């Protein structure tokens, strides 16, 4: 069967549009995608890169490099590379919401997104902590944010939260939900029959037996014991500073970190180009680039499209797997 993916470039002043133009040069990937975007933004990015771009209607067949199917979402103000305009926020989010809606109703099999500029969207009057949270709210489902590259998958217990709020957000119920969704996704989407998951502590040295914090003793350990009794293979709570040592990582299928900057720097420090951002728990597969809007290099042609290419390939694989299982 033919897999159809909705592709949303994200912030028009960032590198998202030019990555979509580069994607259009790869017929093996572009043939899977339909962009939800402003045609002028994509044509401007193609012109800056001096690459061919022909925008087709949403049912057209891709026959050569440089073609991309498009569903139009026009923005009110012209794009200047590197300078997000909050006035465009409603249009940017309208494209995202429409693409997600088309995934929910089965018109599309999965969603691939470029980077969104969180501050510009909030400055435009839309309360937005992240795409992961918005998609989960729209779908009425729970979610887990997982970033993955070959050899390492990191899922997060809390996502876009001020550090001050993290400890209060970690409850036994929340941890149980995150671990259950992660284990289910490892089985269903990644085909790992009996996944082994490492769970990090919250405090230095995983609390040092309660001398450096009590969340491990009061919340994490009891939750892990409860879930082990239900058959999950969980190791932890592990001290975060040593859990990522290569000989330890080799024994896990995924690491669950308590907060954003506990887990993601480890993954991103080995290169932005190999990793993708996966939303687990939605009714459809969603995969995003792992990097941000890179306003500092937008329009220069220096942005590598590898994470977007990997996101499309990964989303197509998940979508095909789900269609086969259905
Ligand atoms: N998937 C998403 O929607 C994400 C959005 N963001 C948003 O992006 C904005 C900027 O975030 P930053 O922390 O500055 O991170 P960033 O990822 O945009 O930039 C960090 C550094 O990596 C470079 N870089 C990023 N992507 C690259 C690529 N494809 N090729 C070459 N170099 C690349 C940038 O030039 C910069 O030097 C923020 O508003 C943030 O919220 C951040 C992460 C993910
Ligand atoms: N650090 C990941 C990130 O900011 C992207 O998350 P989301 O906007 O896709 O939820």
TrEMBL record:
The gene is pdxA. This is 4-hydroxythreonine-4-phosphate dehydrogenase. Homodimer. The active site is located at the dimer interface. Belongs to the PdxA family. Binds 1 divalent metal cation per subunit. Can use ions such as Zn(2+), Mg(2+) or Co(2+). HAMAP family: PdxA. It holds the Pfam family PdxA. It catalyses: 4-(phosphooxy)-L-threonine + NAD(+) = 3-amino-2-oxopropyl phosphate + CO2 + NADH. Its cofactor is Zn(2+); Mg(2+); Co(2+). Its EC number is 1.1.1.262. InterPro entries: PdxA, PdxA_fam. GO terms for biological process: pyridoxal phosphate biosynthetic process; pyridoxine biosynthetic process. Catalyzes the NAD(P)-dependent oxidation of 4-(phosphooxy)-L-threonine (HTP) into 2-amino-3-oxo-4-(phosphooxy)butyric acid which spontaneously decarboxylates to form 3-amino-2-oxopropyl phosphate (AHAP). One of its GO terms (molecular function) is magnesium ion binding. A divalent metal cation binds at residues 160, 205, 260. It comes from Solilutibacter silvestris. Substrate binds at residues 132, 268, 277, 286. Gene3D superfamilies: Isopropylmalate Dehydrogenase (3.40.718.10).
């Amino acid at each position: 069967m033919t897999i159809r993916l909705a592709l949303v470039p994200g912030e028009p002043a960032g590198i998202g549009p030019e990555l979509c133009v580069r994607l259009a040069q790869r017929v093996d990937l572009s043939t899977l995608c339909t962009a939800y975007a402003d045609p002028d933004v994509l044509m401007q990015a193609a012109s800056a890169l001096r690459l061919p771009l022909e925008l087709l209607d949403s049912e057209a067949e891709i026959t050569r490099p440089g073609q991309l199917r498009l569903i139009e979402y026009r923005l009110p103000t012209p794009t200047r590379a590197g300078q997000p305009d909050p006035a465009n926020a409603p249009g940017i989010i309208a494209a995202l919401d429409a693409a997600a809606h088309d995934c929910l109703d089965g018109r599309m099999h999965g969603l691939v997104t470029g980077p969104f500029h969180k501050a510009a969207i909030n400055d435009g009057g839309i309360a937005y902590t992240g795409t992961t949270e918005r998609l989960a709210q729209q779908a009425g489902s729970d979610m887990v944010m997982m970033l993955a590259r070959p050899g390492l998958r990191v899922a997060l217990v809390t996502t876009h939260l001020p550090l001050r709020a993290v400890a209060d957000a970690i409850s036994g119920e929340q941890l149980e939900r995150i671990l259950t969704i992660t284990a289910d996704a490892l089985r269903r989407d990644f085909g790992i029959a009996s996944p082994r998951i490492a769970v990090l502590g919250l405090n230095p040295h995983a609390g040092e037996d309660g001398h450096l914090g009590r969340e491990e003793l009061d919340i994490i350990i009891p939750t892990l014991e409860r879930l082990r009794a239900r058959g999950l293979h969980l190791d932890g709570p592990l001290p975060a500073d040593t859990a990522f040592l290569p000989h330890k990582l080799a024994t896990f299928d995924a690491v669950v970190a308590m907060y954003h900057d506990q887990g993601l720097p480890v993954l991103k420090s080995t290169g932005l180009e190999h990793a993708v951002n996966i939303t687990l728990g939605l009714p459809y597969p969603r995969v995003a680039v792992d990097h941000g809007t890179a306003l500092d290099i937008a329009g220069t042609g220096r942005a590598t499209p590898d994470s977007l290419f990997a996101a499309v390939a990964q989303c197509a694989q998940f979508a095909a797997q789900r269609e086969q299982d259905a």
